[in-house]
Design brief:
The structure holds two protein chains of two kinds. Chain A is of the alpha+beta class. Chain A folds into two domains: about 160 residues, no CATH class; about 160 residues, no CATH class. Chain A has twelve helices and eight strands. In chain A, helix 10 runs antiparallel to helix 11. By secondary structure, chain B is of the alpha+beta class. Chain B contains ten helices and ten strands. In chain B, the strands form two sheets. In chain B, strands 1-9-3-4-8-5-7-6 form an eight-stranded mixed β-sheet. In chain B, strands 2-10 form a two-stranded antiparallel ribbon.
């Protein structure tokens, strides 16, 4: 009886699943991109992280040849250490770079620094503390802002010349513009007992939604989930428009349980069938860069979607049914 | 005909609650759609503009505290500034003398403002001369040309380098440029390094950019340019347009379908009304007119409210955000209009109109 309209509502359910899926996938992609570990030290998405897994210690000269290995950034640090070593021949990391401070006031690591292993460094600090010295730094090149890419996780205090360090640290972060050089360095690191390491686990869908506020407008986008309310509104009117039929059934002995079971059950079945086009659409979406959710998240989302829509469908049905049950004269039947 | 118009207006009053509910629904939905589109397109567009630079601007990195100057370098590099490249610096002494900012422009001044001609020698320009006829530079007087338009500054992405409308520009080109830079650099080698660092080159002129960066990194000791070869924006943008437009279309369809569901009950009731009129001898177009007055009023009032709320705003028409948002809003409304018009016209064109009178019609 309600079949035609019910199919319309199923179509609506599919469309809502698609639009919410697009919003949610976008949020997840953005949150992943904004999370601090996604691009450590502001590196590109090509970056490689290596972790030492043997007792063997390597020195700068074992790994990097200053004359040949350019076009890369190598940053090394120990776990929980506040000092990082930097080898940056292409000046990629010269963020808030020296020119902003003025000529003759500050400088960056130079070729000579790497060759001569001078103990120069950059200090991450609020104050301009140029007289600072420590075991690692005998000359401060300049003080950088605490929000510098060097201090992406807030744990960096000293940025020192990688060549001046005795051994490389536990972690080595590598970013490159020249793949050949990078492969060479990775190979040498591998031979010295370093292994590829993944700093970040993929951020799950639910976690991404809860953390949406880390990127601008994330909260407003999450509020886009309110589109489910529109399904509720449409569903309510769907039953309200057919209140006459429902009251006929009610007057002839239809109970809430029986009627709801039949109507909602059919809706649920079509809803499950409707997931097929949604899945096909997801297959298409995967080709864009904005759809990174795992299959598990996808299925969880779809299950939640079916559950929520079916529940809403039932709830709105219940509201209309209760309305009919309350009106003693059964006037919606007559009109 | 007027009677039918009047009947349509009476319908609005008769079903005022439903009328209001429909408008609220359309307005809220269109607002949500437009917000989502604005945010996503805005963010994507921002990242895209990051890539599509019109000017190559260099970020100098110094690895020394002190620099030396060699005229040979200046002469080797001066051909860059013949075309598509410019450097500038403020002249403190001239600014003090005239009480307004005076910029020295080296090279192709048309990058700074299209009014500055790229010609040999020295020329002085101002947005507004303010009764200043001549400027004296190094003992020679130069006539000020008031040919610049302040609004027509070169398209920079997001910043205005010469914001002061009082600014005066002294443009040097060719031999005059080499001479004046040499004069300044001999007194203080830092000036030469700063002029190199402040160079802008048109992004499409890759030959000049390549030569310039290579020459500076290889020959000028202590000066490098910040490399960003590894940090290019990671995403591929061809898929973005598909993503956003697809999303706008899906959202529009969602809105249209849910509106049709809501409207259906009303539609059936009116359909019965209109059928009775038809069978009593009313003309088809008159009956349709009555329906469209009611239904057009819903769409019309919704659009008016969206205008008043600023959701539809033609002021931003140049921005892609607004394009997509408008696409989504008008897409929603259009789908609603077509869907319901087709429905009612089809129902009233039936050969057996009695079917419309049956109460249990679906």
């Amino acid at each position: 009886m309600l079949l035609k309209q019910q199919l319309l509502l199923n179509l609506l359910s599919i469309l809502i699943a698609l639009s919410v899926l697009m919003i949610v996938a976008y949020i997840q992609e953005r949150v992943t991109e904004w999370s601090p570990d996604a691009y450590p030290f502001g590196m590109s998405e090509k970056h490689v992280i290596m972790k030492r897994e043997s007792e063997q210690r390597v020195t700068f000269d074992d790994i990097i040849d200053v004359d040949k290995d350019t076009g890369v950034v190598v940053i090394s640090r120990d776990e929980n250490s506040k000092t990082i070593g930097v080898y940056d021949p292409n000046m990629v990391m010269a963020f808030r770079n020296t020119s902003a401070l003025g000529i003759g006031i500050a400088r960056y690591f130079s070729y000579d620094d790497y060759v001569n292993k001078t103990k120069v460094g950059i200090l991450v600090s609020y104050a301009d503390n140029r007289d600072y010295t420590s075991d690692n730094i005998s000359e401060v090149l300049y003080c950088t802002h605490v929000r510098d890419a060097f201090n992406y996780d807030g744990n960096t205090k000293e940025v020192v010349n990688l060549a001046s360090m005795d051994t490389l640290g536990e972690y080595v972060f590598l970013d490159y513009g020249d793949k050949q050089v990078a492969d060479r360095i990775i190979k040498r690191l591998r031979n010295s007992g370093y292994r590829r390491h993944n700093l970040m686990e993929q951020i799950g869908l639910l976690k991404a939604l809860l953390n949406a506020n880390i990127f601008p407008d994330g909260n407003i986008l999450t509020a886009g989930l309110l589109i489910y309310l529109f399904f509720g509104v449409a569903s309510y009117w769907h039953f309200y428009n057919d209140r006459k039929k429902i009251s006929v059934h009610f007057l002839h002995g239809g109970t809430l349980k029986k009627m709801a079971g039949k109507i909602t059950g059919r809706f649920f079945g079509f809803n499950l069938l409707g997931l097929i086009p949604v899945l096909l659409f997801c297959y298409f979406l995967r080709k864009t860069d904005y759809f990174i959710m795992t299959n598990f998240s996808l299925f969880m989302f779809l299950a939640a979607h079916v559950l929520v829509t079916t529940l809403m469908y039932f709830m709105t049905y219940y509201i209309v049914f209760a309305m009919i049950r309350r009106s003693e004269r059964g006037d919606s039947y007559v009109r | 005909m007027y009677a039918n118009l009047w009947l349509g207006l009476r319908d609005i009053w008769k079903y005022k609650l439903f009328f209001g509910a429909c408008i609220v629904f359309l307005v809220v939905f269109c607002t949500v759609v437009s917000i989502v589109c604005w945010i996503i397109v805005g963010v994507i567009d921002y990242r895209k503009s990051w890539e599509a630079r019109t000017l190559e601007i260099f970020e100098p990195v110094y690895t020394q505290y002190e620099f030396t100057y060699n005229r040979e370098h200046l002469e080797n590099i001066s051909w860059i500034y013949q075309k598509n490249a410019v450097s500038s610096r403020i002249s403190l002494s001239l600014s003090n003398r005239y009480g307004r900012p005076v910029y020295l422009v080296f090279g192709d001044g048309s990058l700074i403002n299209p009014g500055i001609a790229n010609q040999e020698g020295i020329a002085v320009y101002a947005y507004d001369t303010c009764d200043l006829d001549k400027v004296e530079i190094l003992g020679v007087e130069h006539k000020v040309r008031p040919t610049l338009s302040f609004s027509e500054t070169f398209e920079f992405s997001g910043f205005t380098p010469f914001p002061d409308p009082d600014s005066i520009f002294v443009a040097y080109q060719g031999k005059a440029m080499v001479d004046v830079i040499h004069l300044m650099a001999e007194q203080n080698p830092d000036r030469f390094i700063e002029i190199l660092g402040d160079t802008w080159i048109r992004a499409e002129d890759s030959e000049r950019i390549e030569y310039f960066t290579k020459y500076v990194t290889d020959h000028i000791e202590g000066l490098y340019f910040k490399g960003y070869s590894h940090n290019q924006m990671p995403k591929d943008y061809s898929s973005v347009i598909i993503y956003v437009v697809l999303m706008a279309i899906i959202l529009s369809l969602t809105g249209a379908v849910s509106f049709v569901v809501i409207f259906q009950g009303m539609l059936q009731r009116m359909q019965r009304d209109l059928t009775i009129h038809l069978q009593s001898g009313a003309r088809f177009r008159d009956v349709l007119l009555r329906f469209y007055v009611f239904y057009g009023a819903i769409i019309g009032v919704s659009v008016a409210i969206l205008h008043m709320l600023g959701v539809i705003n033609y002021r931003f028409i140049g921005m892609p955000e607004e394009y997509v948002a408008l696409l989504a809003i008008y897409g929603t409304l259009l789908a609603v209009v077509i869907g319901i018009s087709a429905y009612i016209a089809r129902a009233l064109k039936r050969t057996n109109l009695f079917e419309n009178l049956r109460g249990d019609m679906v």
